[in-house]
Amino acid sequence: QVQLVESGGGLVQSGDSLTLSCSASGRTFMLYKGGWFRQDPGKEREFVASITWSGGSTTYRDSVKGRFTISTDNAKNTVYLQMNSLKPEDTAVYYCAAALYDGAGWAYWGQGTQVTVSS
């Protein structure tokens, strides 16, 4: 099992920056990918960004490309999401997720952290 704990959400103004952190514990030696998803009330959860835990490959949704950066610190078993030039439409609960080398996909999720961007 893997446990994920997020931190770093908050209330910011449009154009501001925010960094989310997600610390993993448990079977961290099995970690393959780390990712961030977000969900607005009444909408489906959507993919934001992912990274192989070794840091070699990243993927972003189009609307955040050039503004968000996902990264890892393997020594701390932590994945980060640096968010710049935030927009009101980025407002959502952000969830960290982890996939292991077992082929089960995004099997582990954090509790979520609220990000609110005011205009």
Question: Can you give me a brief rundown of this structure?
Answer:
The chain has strands at residues 2-7, 10-13, 18-26, 31-39, 46-52, 58-60, 68-73, 78-83, 92-100, 106-109, 113-118. By secondary structure, the chain is mostly beta strands.
Describe this structure in words.
It is a single chain. This protein is mostly beta strands and 119 residues long. 0% of the residues lie in helices and 58% in strands. It is built from no helices and eleven strands. The chain has strands at residues 2-7, 10-13, 18-26, 31-39, 46-52, 58-60, 68-73, 78-83, 92-100, 106-109, 113-118. Strand 5 (46-52) and strand 6 form a beta hairpin. The protein is globular. The model has no long low-confidence stretch (mean pLDDT 94).
How many beta-strand elements? 11
**Outline, from the CA principal axes?**
globular
Largest sheet: 7 strands, mixed
- Please tell me how large the radius of gyration is: 14 Å
Q: Treating each run of at least 4 consecutive H or I residues as one helix, how many helices?
A: 0
- Unreliable segments of 5+ consecutive residues: none
The secondary-structure element order is EEEEEEEEEEE
The end-to-end span amounts to 40 Å
The share of residues in extended strands comes to over 45%
Q: Output mean pLDDT.
A: 94
Structural class by SSE content: mainly beta
Helix % is under 10%
